[in-house]
Amino acid sequence: MKEGLVISASWKLLENSMLATLPILGVEDPRAFYKKARAVYRLEMDSLPEYGEGDVLKLNLAQAVMLGAIYETCDPKPDIDTLTRFYHDFLTHSSFLMKKMAKRDMLAPKEVQRQIDIGKKSQNASHPFTWQFSVCVEDENRFTATFTRCGIYDYLKSRGMAHIVPAMCAIDFTMGEISNHLFLRDSTLATGGNVCDCHYVRKSFATKEEWEKSQSDKRDEALRGGRTIV
């Protein structure tokens, strides 16, 4: 599967962030480790079939391939708490990405419609590691994206690494904290649920109950995923 311009540019922009945060995993020579992990990543990407017209979230799959390559390269293997911290710090260390996420309005009408359109497109997915989801809009300040397939989970499960998926799932709550929306989720495919139910609520309109539930969901998901830190 070809990276494409967006994925290639993303790795270029995040390379310094990766090098800065690899020591969290006990890596003593980040540049040498990164080179080795990138080689594993490229072999994996080359082995995957290309996305079809109905397949979505290719960048997300590339991130899963990279995390799998990093985990495979680690010796000894990090525990789920350490891997979660690494993935969190790797993304949040990038000032470019954080500024972009802070400005992103998930509840803007155009963004909500974009999610609806992507969800409709995903119903015709053909790739073994892609996403299928639908969007339900409650009102102008709330919507839910319900995923029945997750490319990250399916890919890492195929490589015997399903247990590390929660390290990536946790970033959804972090992105909500950075952005203008509150994120809630009752279940994930990676932790035994039938779906991933992702709820987005505009912070300025969120109720006290929704704020409390977001924190509760975050803790519950951590426990289901084998994590002891939130």
Characterization of this structure:
55% of the residues lie in helices and 12% in strands. The model has no long low-confidence stretch (mean pLDDT 96). Helix 3 (58-73) packs parallel to helix 7. A 4-stranded antiparallel β-sheet has the order 1-2-4-3. By secondary structure, the protein is of the alpha+beta class.
**Strand content bin:** 5-15%
Report on the biggest sheet: 4 strands, antiparallel
Q: What is the N-to-C order of secondary-structure elements (H for helix, E for strand)?
A: HHHHHHEEHHHEEH
Mean pLDDT: 96
Brief description of this entry?
With 230 residues, the chain is of the alpha+beta class. It contains 10 helices and 4 strands; from the N terminus they run ααααααββαααββα.
Task: Give the topology.
Blueprint: H1 4-21, H2 30-47, H3 58-73, H4 80-92, H5 95-103, H6 109-122, E1 132-139, E2 142-149, H7 151-158, H8 165-169, H9 171-178, E3 181-185, E4 196-202, H10 208-224
Antiparallel strand pairs: 1-2, 2-4, 3-4
Helix pairs in contact: 1-4, 2-3, 3-7
